[in-house]
Amino acid sequence: MFRNNIKHSLLVYIAWVVSLSSYGQTNAQRPNVIFIMSDDHAEQAISAYGHPISQKAPTPHIDRIANEGALFLNNYCSNSICGPSRAAILTGKHSHKNGFMRNGNKGFDGTQQTLPKILQQNGYETAIIGKWHLISKPTGFDHWEILNDQGDYYNPYFITERDTVRRMGYVTDLITDLTKDWLANRDKNKPFFLMMHHKAPHRNWVPAERHYKLYENTVFPVPETYFDDYEGRYAAAQQEMNIYRDMYEGHDLKMVTGIDSDTLLYDPWPHAFLETMTPAEQERFFAAYRDRNNDFYTTMRTEKEKALWKFQRYMQDYLATVKSVDESVGEILDYLKANGLDKNTIVIYTSDQGFYLGEHGWFDKRFMYEESFGMPLLMSYPKHIKPGIKIDGLTQNIDFAPTLLDLCQIATPDDMQGRSFKALLQNGRTPKDWRKSLYYHYYEYPGFHSVRAHYGVKMERYKLMHFPKENLWELYDIKKDPSEIENIFGKKGTAKITQKLQQELLMLQDKYEVDNEYR
């Protein structure tokens, strides 16, 4: 009996040692993950995508991720608005399944299964730093330090589990420094999953002080659709997100009341702008914009010329704000290399959705049109992703969680609605059994910017959208009409493709278990 007990104890001890050894090997093999997400960063403003606007304001550090890994050409969100997109990324589920359908929701249900929770349960140290915007406290993270609500560009408040602290400085720089601090002090015996979420370049596009004048003499190309008349598109005509009609001239465009004035025109949210700056910072801000603002008042312009002036001011500020994000990405990539972490770390750069840079005369997002439906995605993983490949397959933000779990050698839960796109990363080729369509659903109406609720399906060439309250349909041939100007729904010769897309839409709604009240 005594010998048997010793033998049993010895076997348990050996198994424990083997288990520890195996755990160590697994941790060594499993990749670290840095998930970098900005807010409202359009593909058009990332030079790796080659858009004419980005060629005037390149993003060399973000481009490094694509050069060293993959650039996704057909990545899309499931609901083009901040909070819902974040919820979809965390859960791998569409909005109606994760419960966060609108920015105005009561709060994200943090009790549900999420990507960081699963990674945490499988030996990862997890952290999120920066923007959260889900009206709840983060769960599944060993460390979190998040901005209060949208956050402020200057001297913002950060919330932790212990307290709320105001940090002096520019928000993008602060998030970068906090991220590097966490990396330096993390548990070195565990692989890590780190989400670095920037506020920038969210409205109202306040650049870092060093970049106030970065593009003041740059003339950005104006989209061909800037003066769109929205013919045949009821919802597009009803929106309130036009640059030259709906932007707040003070808050958004940094315009003042007159020559040599240090008083902004209408500013509905001063707490998100000047109120957080010190008096000295305010003085330097006005000084940086004074000559350009004076020029607006001293130069006679037609209404069309004023509209074009506003476009240039918008682009100058938006892209100067992006510049700090690009610098931040460069700092993180350099940190990884300097600390020997670059070889076994997956680096992802994305935004919570796309954004309009003057297309259709717009700013903001929400619509299923390409500029806001599409979201940038760049991803590197040395020795696993061939440098410089381009991914053509249809991917979506609900795929991020399954893909990262797959790459981290962790099983994907059955209730996640996304699909791992690991196979697309092998050589950039799209497998024959890959999805042929994507589902989209925007719920927030009535709401800010007056974008009507709608849902739809996108296939390789065609896109069908339905606005249920008005019972209006829109159909686009993306190949012939990439700007989505001509709604061909109901036009001669479109019956067959319309029927095919409506069947595909019903199939997706059934597949994703969309309740009848949302159809």
TrEMBL record:
Q: Look up the coiled coil feature and give its residue ranges.
A: none
Q: Which InterPro entries match?
A: Alkaline_phosphatase_core_sf (IPR017850), Phosphodiest/P_Trfase (IPR002591), SGSH_C (IPR032506), Sulfatase_CS (IPR024607)
Record key words, sorted: Hydrolase
| Pfam families documented for this protein | Phosphodiest (PF01663), SGSH_C (PF16347)
Per UniProt, residues of the N-sulphoglucosamine sulphohydrolase C-terminal domain are 358-510
Task: List, alphabetically, the PANTHER family matched.
Answer: N-ACETYLGLUCOSAMINE-6-SULFATASE FAMILY MEMBER, N-SULPHOGLUCOSAMINE SULPHOHYDROLASE
User: Can you tell me which family this protein belongs to?
Assistant: Belongs to the sulfatase family.
Q: What is this protein called?
A: Sulfatase
> What species is given as this protein's source?
Sphingobacterium chuzhouense
